[in-house]
Inverse folding.
């Protein structure tokens, strides 16, 4: 299985690009917010139990999808080092054990573009980050950095449409449309 690991800061367009990738590849989307929302219903946000459950849900899903024989899965994520590094190590370990190929894709855009996008009304309806001050805090914490555990395809979503971004990703990794 191929794990298309889309990451970047809030408001960069991860879910929008993921939807286009699904249209082109047929791969299902595992939006980061599915696991966040689930874990937050059971534990206080960012508590040790919350983080443990969040990671376990994600890793379990990756393993199960591979065991089910899926050709690919699209996962969206905000990478904030160093707090994300242990999870990334766990992802690599699970993927190695399960025969999953990780395809790192870093979506990026200038901070001023992200600050405009974070205010879009649809973000609130999707329960996504919509506070500029929180976005700035995430950017200061390193949300613009690349994951250092492997090479990432970089796509600037301020320069291309979501459709163009998805086509670039599909072409770069030689992915094919569903049969």
């Amino acid at each position: 299985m191929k794990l298309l690991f889309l990451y970047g800061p809030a408001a960069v367009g991860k879910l929008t690009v993921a939807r286009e990738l699904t249209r082109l590849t047929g791969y299902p989307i595992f939006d980061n917010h599915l696991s966040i929302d689930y874990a937050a219903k059971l534990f206080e946000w960012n508590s040790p139990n919350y983080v443990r459950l969040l990671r376990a849900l994600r890793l379990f899903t990756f393993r199960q999808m591979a065991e089910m024989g899926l050709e690919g899965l699209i996962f969206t994520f905000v990478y904030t080092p160093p707090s994300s590094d242990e999870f990334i190590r766990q992802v690599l370990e699970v993927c190695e054990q399960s025969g999953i190929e990780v395809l790192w894709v870093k979506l990026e855009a200038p901070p001023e573009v992200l600050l405009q996008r974070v205010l879009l009304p649809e973000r609130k309806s999707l329960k996504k980050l919509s506070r500029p001050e929180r976005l700035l805090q995430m950017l200061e914490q390193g949300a613009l950095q690349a994951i250092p555990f492997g090479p990432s395809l970089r796509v600037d979503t301020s320069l291309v449409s979501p459709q163009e971004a998805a086509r670039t990703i599909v072409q770069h990794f030689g992915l094919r449309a569903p049969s």
Observations:
- The mean pLDDT is 92.
- The first strand starts at residue 2 and ends at 7.
- The longest helix spans residues 48-67.
